[in-house]
Amino acid sequence: MALIFDPGTLRGLFGPQFNSISTLQVDVTLSESHELPSTVTEKPVEDGSNSNDNVILNNAKVSIAGVLTDDRLGTSQAEKWRALQDIRRSREPFTVVTSLGAYENMIFTSIGASREVSSVGAVFFNADLTQVRIISSETVQVPLRAIPESRKAKQAPKQDKGKQQAITDTPEASERKRRSIAVQIFGED
Predict the structure, then answer these.
(1) Residue 174 domain-assigned?
(2) CA distances in angstroms from 125 to 34, 38, 47, 49, 155, listed in the order given
(3) What's the pTM?
(4) 3-state DSSP call for residue 176?
(5) How many domains does the chain have?
(6) Domain assignment of residue 78, yes or no
(7) Which of 58, 77, 99, 109 is the most exposed place for a label (fewest CB within 10 A)?
(8) Inside any domain, residue 180
(9) Can you tell me the mean pLDDT for 57-67?
(10) Under 8 Å CB-to-CB from 138, ≥6 apart: which residues?
């Protein structure tokens, strides 16, 4: 398995030595789990059953159990583990290449590591990744004359409704309301 980044991502995290290298290689992949979930929409109909008329493709999820080891280039397993943590903290999407395919725009949702006495020189890790959908928006100015007359918003003319008198309770009406509530709660004197 390999994690592939935009060339500037690793350079920004680790310095100029990553100008041309944009891949972080995992030494051993113990297991991979791939999930491609979908949601079937349901709408109730009159007879009490549900109508299904659409499928939503949800984001892909990948779980990986792997091993990071010291390599011949002098990078220790601890440095690789710190690199995974830094990549997670950067919150930048990356591509994951596995034995079953490549997934773009992936983000770590969880990473964990374990070490055992028998695993000197190696870090065993688990990583859960979820694909994110990146959207963009654009604001465009449309001149008013570009909109056909038939589509322009039409408003009804304003109407003068004359003076309107506010309706207020008289002191006698307010006292009747208060007494009726009190009578309901406490009964008559």
Answers:
(1) no
(2) 17, 28, 52, 46, 64
(3) 0.59
(4) helix
(5) 1
(6) yes
(7) 99
(8) no
(9) 93
(10) none
